Amino acid sequence: MRIVLITGISGSGKSVALNVLEDAGYYCVDNLPPALLPSLVDALVADGAAKLAVAVDARSAQSLVGLPANVKRLCDEGHDIRIMFLTANTHSLVARFSETRRSHPLSHQLRPDENPASRRTLIECILEERERLSAIEKLGHVIDTSELSANKLRAWITELVEIERAPMTLFFESFAFKLGVPLDADFVFDVRALPNPYYDLALRPMTGKDAPVIAFLDAQPSAAELLNDIRTFVEKWLPSFKTDNRSYLTVALGCTGGQHRSVYMAERLAAYFSPTERVVLRHREQS
């Protein structure tokens, strides 16, 4: 059975991800206590189900500690398991809860020593949830949704689900430093030292995927040198990450606005590695 396990911080888009998987034909279960996961899989296999998506959150705090063991057991039984951990910065989470006017799931839970008349603030709930989930964050692929629209998150989830089982997937992601560094990045390269096409009025409305911008940066010796340095670094260390049984490696390229230089570099790197590696290309600041 193919199993997609979705976990992460409340407000980071788990419901959006689960809806995408439901539309893709997965049997979906929300807020399942992790201790029940093996029993659910056994029951669905007996019924002939082939695909399952399960969302797990911090409300199941007591059984979260057993999740790694349950995942290992299911893998040993031959199931194809993928784990996605969705997160976002606190500022984005607060804004989302404010927009939807929904309460945080942990706001309804009392600590043993907590006065029933008191209620934790949203910030306190978010911090406690991060602490509860910290042990399982590294089990899967981390997706930072801080600057993602719902549509873009849907596209990313769809892309991940369609990737067949492989030793490792190499992600190249462009982004804007002014909007924050992606939380899911394993390596971050700053390409702001390159000449900026933004200051050419003819190039300003374009992106690093447009031919005139590509020609502009191709003509810069510093762009070729930096591209070669990053490419060499990734090539050198890629085998080590494969040996470490990593499923994903994310290389983020950042410039000021996330439109020209970072996009150009991500495109160039993706094109270079695509013939030999499983590559996914992302441009965070482009719709």
UniProtKB/TrEMBL annotation:
GO MF term list: ATP binding; GTP binding
Transmembrane segments annotated in the record for this chain: none
Binding positions (GTP): D57, A58, R59, S60
Binding sites annotated in the UniProt record for ATP: G8, I9, S10, G11, S12, G13, K14, S15
Keywords: ATP-binding, GTP-binding, Nucleotide-binding
Lineage: superkingdom: Bacteria
Residue ranges constituting the RapZ-like N-terminal domain according to the UniProt record: 1-160
InterPro entries: P-loop_NTPase, RapZ-like, RapZ-like_N, RapZ_C
Domain RapZ C-terminal as annotated: residue spans: 168-286
Protein name per Swiss-Prot or TrEMBL: RNase adapter RapZ
Organism in which the protein naturally occurs: Massilia cavernae
